[in-house]
Design a protein that fits this description.
The mean pLDDT is 84. Strands 1-2-3-4 form a 4-stranded antiparallel β-sheet, with no helix packed on it. The chain is an all-beta fold. It has one domain: Nuclear Transport Factor 2, Chain: A (Roll), CATH 3.10.450. InterPro entries: NTF2-like_dom_sf.
């Protein structure tokens, strides 16, 4: 299923970066049902010796809503 990602904030210090963004997956499930899942992710990347950035920590459900509730979608049964 296609995923779209919208970076919200990036904080960089030397060879480390903290990434915060929103993501959405929209598509059709295996049994033909519409699927919509979204969240806000937090990740940490490290710059390698070759200059490329590598993901070292990825929490795809990394933030809470304004009300303090988890944004983790209910994925039970999938």
């Amino acid at each position: 299923m296609p995923i779209s990602v919208r970076p919200r904030q990036v904080y960089r210090s030397g060879g480390l970066a903290l990434l915060i963004g929103d993501w959405v997956i929209d598509g059709v499930g295996r049994e033909g049902q519409d699927v919509h899942v979204e969240g806000a992710a937090i990740g940490v990347a490290r710059r390698g010796p070759d200059g490329r950035w590598w993901c070292v920590i990825d929490d795809r459900f990394g933030t809470l809503t304004e009300g303090g509730e988890s944004r983790r979608p209910d994925v039970s049964g999938s």
